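hi! just following up on the protien thing from before. the input was this:
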Amino acid sequence: MDIMFVYSPMDRPAQGEWYYCTFDTWYYSLGVQFFTLIIFTLISQYITFHSKTHTMHGTGGGTERGVIPRCLAFIAEHKATEENNGWVFSMEVSFLEIYNETLRDLLRAPDSKNNEECKHDIKVGQDGRRSVTNLTIKTLDPNDRDAVKAVLTLAAKRRATGCTDMNATSSRSHSVFTLNLTARHEEKNQMIRGSLNLIDLAGSERLDRSNAMDQRANETKSINKSLSSLTDVFTAIGQRASHVPYRNSKLTYLLEPALSGDGKTCMIVNVSPTEASRQESICSLRFASKVNACELGKAKRTVEEVTKQNGSSNTQGRNLKSKT
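and the predicted 3d structure came back as:
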């Protein structure tokens, strides 16, 4: 797996030189890879209050845009190129959170049932594709910046947050933004499907620093437990164990297709240069080293040959090894 490190702007030193890094080249690479792979997943990880959510969402436009709007912008660019080559695209997005091991729809309609009343489960279809039941799916044109902003604003508004001694607006859940793409080429009778998952993990917490109590303490325990399950999965993959415990948490079960060799996965690790966060930064770097040692195998894509019979379309998939 690929690893990137980001220093939190919240920890900018009062004196001394400060270095910023840009990832435009990486975003460009992602845009290319997304059109050649079946699954691409990006995970943002670190302790609470270190700008993971800001990294993913950003604010405003220009240089303040986050990973999600930047990725969509580069996808839009490559979409235009491929459309000139005869491909026709449809793109749909969903946005969910995993709160205390419960799936919640962040794009539900304002007049829909409360999350507590609408149950969401992870299902595996006969074709092996994973999906979440009763989840709102929105058609999205990545060129439409207003539509992209509306999706991010709605999801941010509905995501579970809370106040602790470490963060006044601490994310209390993991969020998963998913873009599903279908591309058809009528002359070649081919169809390609792809998925892009952009994940903002809730930050791990030490109760002696966050002083979380009651509901917040229960949230902390659930967050840390699911992050431990993710660590167990990476450990098993790195050791090439015969059994990988994907089912130990909703997060790892949902990510199983991305982590089992069908696609490519990258992790952003937000680290802090402050002495107060020294131990957490060391733990994150150790975790990143473990993740970086994982070999997920060569990514694959599926090209489906479409044949029209009696006005209907039948598809037959054939796996092609990706060159990326």
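Residues 2-7+26-111+121-321 form a domain with the Kinesin fold (CATH 3.40.850.10).
The longest strand covers residues 88-99.
cheers
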